[in-house]
């Protein structure tokens, strides 16, 4: 393990130089990796595993859109593509990459397919931590492990293809075989993690649900909309409002933050921008702090979990989801965004 100083707190992390892909192949040489679910994380992890030379099979509902996507990606029905039950039976490592609601719905099927010594793998602590709501309680004679990439499935795949890797957390909930940790680390490297940092199932799900609803998605979307609407209210054009709210952030400034941090980004902007950011950042921090307190409490007490399971398990969920997403897509702000993106040089060729 490498010891890294994270702002005065020393943490131990695992890098792909320490735990090499060859070591991962040795650890997993006798395993069959079954990925249940070919929706969001499934394709990225499956393709990365396959490209790295690991025996990988897919479990998916036969004939649906995700089944067809798996076929399009080169998985073959009856050879590397099976029903969820068949894949779970064949695998020695069963990756639960269905949606959280999907894991709940299929758990009775998956549970009966587990054999002694199998590893049940998650990329999210949801099902295990909120077991009172999900009903997912693994048998005691298997390993229960987690590797959670810190990015969408799209970026897990993109980062693998460009060689940069994705940061991932890892955890062991149950070590029956005595090999749970090395299995976990090997799988983390096998799916393309650049480095892995330790967590617990509980901490992973608390941070993940907070992050998704907060800075990563919910807060970001809400703040963007508020600023765009403000500028439009004061007579700014859609192009100007969108560029000042989204385009400059995503195409310029956030890249500077990614390269060297927020202070470096501030230092590489105009002095006027620096002063404004330094003065207003604390105001926004203090304004949203109560919202984040409420959010974390709802996550910790399971209220957010209850909401997710109730809504996402409804038979008409996808129809309602499409309607909600269409409201965003058809708003002036994001229509302006589509127009702005079309004007990027790479899209005008």
Automatic annotation (TrEMBL):
Example of a GO biological process term: isoleucine biosynthetic process
Broad enzyme group: oxidoreductase
Pfam families: KARI_C, KARI_N
UniProt-listed Enzyme Commission number(s): 1.1.1.86
Keywords: Amino-acid biosynthesis, Branched-chain amino acid biosynthesis, Isomerase, Magnesium, Metal-binding, Oxidoreductase
Binding site for Mg(2+) 1: 208, 212
Lineage: superkingdom: Bacteria
Binding site for substrate: 270
Pathway: Amino-acid biosynthesis; L-isoleucine biosynthesis; L-isoleucine from 2-oxobutanoate: step 2/4; Amino-acid biosynthesis; L-valine biosynthesis; L-valine from pyruvate: step 2/4
GO molecular function, one term: ketol-acid reductoisomerase activity
Domain KARI C-terminal knotted: 200-347
Cofactor(s) required, per the database record: Mg(2+)
Chain positions recorded as Mg(2+) 2 binding sites: 208, 244, 248
Record-annotated KARI N-terminal Rossmann domain positions: 10-199
Similarity-based family: Belongs to the ketol-acid reductoisomerase family.
Stated name of the protein: Ketol-acid reductoisomerase
């Amino acid at each position: 393990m490498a010891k890294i100083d994270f702002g005065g707190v020393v943490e131990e992390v695992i890098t792909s130089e320490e735990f090499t892909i060859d070591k991962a192949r040795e650890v997993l040489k006798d395993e069959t990796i079954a990925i249940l679910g070919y929706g969001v994380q499934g394709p990225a992890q499956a393709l990365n595993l396959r490209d790295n030379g690991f025996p990988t099979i897919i479990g998916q509902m036969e004939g649906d859109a995700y089944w067809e996507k798996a076929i399009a990606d080169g998985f073959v029905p009856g050879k590397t593509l099976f029903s969820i039950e068949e894949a779970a039976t064949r695998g020695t490592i069963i990756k639960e990459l269905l949606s959280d609601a999907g894991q709940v719905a299929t758990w009775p099927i998956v549970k009966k397919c587990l054999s002694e010594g199998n590893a049940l793998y998650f990329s999210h602590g949801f099902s295990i931590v909120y077991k009172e709501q999900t009903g997912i309680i693994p048998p005691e004679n298997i390993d229960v492990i987690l590797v959670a990439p810190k990015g969408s499935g799209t970026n897990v795949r993109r980062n693998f293809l460009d060689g940069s890797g994705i940061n991932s957390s890892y955890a062991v909930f149950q070590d029956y075989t005595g090999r749970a940790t090395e299995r976990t680390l090997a799988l983390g490297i096998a799916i393309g993690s650049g480095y892995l940092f330790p967590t617990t199932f509980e901490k992973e799900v608390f941070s993940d649900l907070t992050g998704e609803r907060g800075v990563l998605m919910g807060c970001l979307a809400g703040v963007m909309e508020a600023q765009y609407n403000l500028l439009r209210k004061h007579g700014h054009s859609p192009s100007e409002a969108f560029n000042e709210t989204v385009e400059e952030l995503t195409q310029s400034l956030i890249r500077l933050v990614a390269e060297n941090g927020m202070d470096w980004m501030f230092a590489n902007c105009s002095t006027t921008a620096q002063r404004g950011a330094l003065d207003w950042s604390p105001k926004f921090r203090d304004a949203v702090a109560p919202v984040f307190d409420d959010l974390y409490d709802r996550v910790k007490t399971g209220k957010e979990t209850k909401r997710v399971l109730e809504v996402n398990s409804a038979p008409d969920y996808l129809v309602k989801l499409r309607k909600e997403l269409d409201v965003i897509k058809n708003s002036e702000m994001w229509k302006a965004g589509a127009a702005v993106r079309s004007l990027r040089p790479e899209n005008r060729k």
